[in-house]
Design brief:
It is globular and about 65 Å long. It is built from twelve helices and 15 strands. The strands form two sheets. Strands 1, 2, 3, 4, 5, 6, 7 and 15 form an eight-stranded mixed sheet that branches. It has a seven-stranded mixed sheet with strand order 9-10-11-12-13-8-14, with helices on both faces. The protein has two domains: about 140 residues, Aminopeptidase; about 160 residues, Aminopeptidase (3-Layer(aba) Sandwich), CATH 3.40.630. The mean pLDDT is about 90.
Length: about 350
C-alpha cells in the first residue's frame, strides 16, 4: 500500500502521535504533541501535525507551528520555542515524502519560509544556519563520580557554592522562577517570554517538567525550568538575580540538578543550545561538555535569503544595548509582546 501523508488533530491523534514519538530514537520532547498545545495556548496561532501512514501505521511525523512577526515575517517552524525539531521517520524515503509535503504546504500557505531545526543535517540542498551548537553528556548513577568528572576549575567553583551553604527546592513555583529569569534575560538584552508560556509548559507536561530554585538562606538566587524526556534531563530556561553570580548560584544550581538527575535514575544531561562564541557556550564547555553543531535548514518561499534572527547580528546590537538599560517593570510588560516572534 502506498504512503499517505495527512494532517491530524484531536485526542486520538495526540495519543497515537506520542506513541510513535516516544519509541523513536531521534525524537525529542519538542516533538511531543503537547509542545504545540502549550505554544498555541500561550500565543494562539496555527499548529500543523503532519503524519505519514502506511497501511494505517504511522511511519513518520513532522510538527509545524506558524509564526508571524514584523521582525522575521510569516513562517512555518519545526518547532517554535523549541531548540530541536524536524522530521522523525522510519527511513529516508518516508522523510523525503514528508519534506515534500511540508514544502508544498509552505507554498500553499504563502508563508515567507519554512524553518526546520534539525539536530543533524538532512543533506537536502537547502540554505542553513550553523550558528548553534548543543551539549550533551552521559551521567552515571553515582553522584560522586559525576562530581569528579567536572573539570577541576569548574569543580572548585561549585565547591564555593556548597561551602556557602546554599540550598535548593524543587517545585512548580513559576512566580519566583519568572522574577529571577526575567531579570537575567533583561541583563542580556533579550525580551522575556510570557509567563504564560512557562505556566503552560508545566501544565501540559505535568510529569515531565519542574522548577529547581537555589536559595541563600530564604533569598532565592537563581532558578531553572527543566524538561524530562526518556532518560535525559534538559535544563531549558534558567536565570538568576544579581547576587547569583557573586555567590556562585548558577554553578551550584546546575550541579544540584545533575546530582538530582543521577539520583533519580536519569542517565543523560542535555545542556541545550548555545550560540557559538557566546558566554553561554563557554560556560558549558567549562563543565566538560563537548559541543555538537545543530543544522537549522530553510525552504524559502517568498523570502530571498535566510533571515538573521541572531542577537549577534550587528543590526540587533543597538537594540540589545538599549534593552539592557530599561527598567525591569518595562521589559516585563513589553517583552512578552516582542519575544513571541523570537521563539
Amino acid at each position: 500500500m502506498s504512503l499517505v501523508i495527512e494532517e491530524v488533530r484531536g485526542t486520538l491523534a495526540r495519543s497515537e502521535w506520542n506513541d510513535y514519538v516516544d519509541q523513536h530514537d531521534n525524537a525529542t520532547i519538542f516533538h511531543r504533541y503537547e509542545w504545540g498545545e502549550a505554544v498555541v495556548a500561550t500565543y494562539g496561532g496555527e499548529y500543523v501535525y503532519i503524519v505519514a501512514r502506511e497501511d494505517g501505521i504511522i511511519r513518520g511525523v513532522l510538527p509545524l507551528g506558524r509564526s508571524r512577526s514584523l521582525l522575521f515575517g510569516d513562517y512555518l517552524c519545526s518547532v517554535p520555542f523549541g531548540v530541536y525539531g524536524g522530521i522523525v521517520a522510519d527511513n529516508e524515503k518516508v522523510a523525503e515524502e514528508i519534506d515534500s509535503y511540508a514544502c508544498r504546504l509552505a507554498d500553499g500557505m504563502g508563508v515567507d519560509y519554512l524553518e526546520v531545526r534539525n539536530r543533524v543535517s538532512t543533506g537536502y540542498d537547502r540554505p542553513d544556519r550553523d550558528i548553534y551548537v548543543t551539549f550533551h553528556k552521559n551521567i552515571c548513577s553515582d553522584a560522586e563520580e559525576n562530581f569528579k568528572s567536572i573539570p577541576r576549575k569548574q569543580r572548585a567553583v561549585v565547591r564555593k557554592g556548597i561551602k556557602l551553604g546554599l540550598s535548593f527546592s524543587i517545585s512548580k513555583d513559576v512566580d519566583t522562577f519568572y522574577r529571577l529569569y526575567s531579570e537575567s534575560v533583561r541583563n542580556l538584552g533579550t525580551p522575556v517570554f510570557s509567563k504564560d508560556l512557562f505556566r503552560n509548559i508545566l501544565r501540559f507536561f505535568p510529569d515531565k517538567s519542574f522548577i529547581l530554585t537555589i536559595f541563600n538562606g530564604d533569598t532565592p538566587l537563581c532558578s531553572v525550568l527543566s524538561l524530562l524526556y526518556k532518560k535525559d534531563v534538559l535544563p531549558y530556561y534558567g536565570g538568576g538575580g544579581g547576587a547569583a553570580r557573586s555567590l556562585h548560584g548558577n554553578d551550584f544550581m546546575y550541579w544540584k540538578l545533575m546530582e538530582w538527575a543521577c539520583n533519580t535514575g536519569y542517565t543523560g544531561f542535555d545542556f541545550g543550545r548555545s550560540k557559538v562564541g557566546t558566554g553561554s557556550c563557554s560556560f558549558k564547555k567549562n563543565w566538560g561538555f563537548e559541543s555538537t553543531p545543530l543544522s537549522y535548514e530553510y525552504y524559502l518561499v517568498r523570502k530571498k535569503e535566510v533571515p538573521d534572527k541572531s542577537p549577534l547580528n550587528p543590526r540587533m546590537k543597538p537594540l540589545i544595548e538599549v534593552w539592557k538599560r530599561m527598567p525591569l517593570s518595562f521589559t516585563n510588560t513589553v517583552g512578552p509582546y516582542v519575544s513571541r516572534s523570537l521563539g
